[in-house]
Amino acid sequence: GENVEQHPSTLSVQEGDSAVIKCTYSDSASNYFPWYKQELGKRPQLIIDIRSNVGEKKDQRIAVTLNKTAKHFSLHITETQPEDSAVYFCAAPISGTYKYIFGTGTRLKVLA
Amino acid sequence: SQTIHQWPATLVQPVGSPLSLECTVEGTSNPNLYWYRQAAGRGLQLLFYSVGIGQISSEVPQNLSASRPQDRQFILSSKKLLLSDSGFYLCAWSGQLNTGELFFGEGSRLTVL
């Protein structure tokens, strides 16, 4: 079946450094790729998303890049801050269905 | 604006007892509705989704069930809880054919003892 692989599972960076999380998807017809941030004990919240007709999207310190040929997309966080510490999930839809598949999550720790 | 409400926020239930979690969406019509479960420190597992009243698709065989008695109401139930049912349950909705944002409720933390 379709799946989404996410790496790394944990990531520690020093405050001010950049963090990159990568996801690979299998459904070549997927056309929407969101990233969610989940703080401890809270619900996942969308932080950025990208559609298949663009290769990159930025919103202040966060950006997402998409490589449709290779079927992977990445989350980039620059100038990391302690409040960026959370679990990040990527997701991709299964084309022709109403389902979204999530990656297994990346626990990001920003060390002060 | 659209909002999603989910309750109860936390509950502790003994093994073998029933369960009912409720989710309602406001400010939109005919949403796609989802139930996800998240075990401690783990990812999001899709349990059920619904594209309309009375239409339920099950993703994982288990002792849970879902119902959609009204357009914007989604209920997760169990007749007899197992220890393995413990987790963080998240209701979510989307407004399109999975090409738009998925909005999550605040979650229900279930502990089965």
Terminal CA distance of chain A = 41 Å
Most extensive chain interface and residues per partner: A-B, 24 and 24 residues
**What's the SSE pattern of chain A?**
EEEEEEEEEEE
Task: Output the radius of gyration of chain B.
Answer: 13 Å
Assembly classification: heterodimer
Low-confidence stretches of chain B: none
Task: Report the sheet-strand fraction of chain B.
Answer: over 45%
Number of contiguous helices of chain B = 0
What is the C-alpha radius of gyration of chain A, as a whole number of Å?
A: 14 Å
Distance between the termini of chain B: 39 Å
The parts of chain A where pLDDT drops under 50 for at least 5 residues are: none
Which structural class matches the secondary elements of chain B?
mainly beta
Strand count, sense and barrel status of the largest sheet of chain A are: 6 strands, mixed
- Quote the average pLDDT of chain B: 92
| Residue share in β-strands of chain A | over 45%
Sheet having the most strands of chain B: 7 strands, mixed
The H/E string of chain B reads: EEEEEEEEEEE
Question: Helix fraction of chain A?
Answer: under 10%
Annotation field: number of helices of chain A: 0
Give the SSE map.
The complex is a heterodimer of chains A (112) and B (113).
Chain A: E1 4-7, E2 10-14, E3 19-25, E4 32-38, E5 45-51, E6 56-59, E7 62-67, E8 72-77, E9 86-93, E10 100-102, E11 106-111
Parallel strand pairs in A: 2-11
Antiparallel strand pairs in A: 1-3, 3-8, 4-5, 4-9, 6-7, 7-8, 9-10, 9-11
Chain B: E1 3-7, E2 10-13, E3 19-26, E4 32-38, E5 45-52, E6 55-58, E7 64-70, E8 73-78, E9 87-94, E10 103-104, E11 108-112
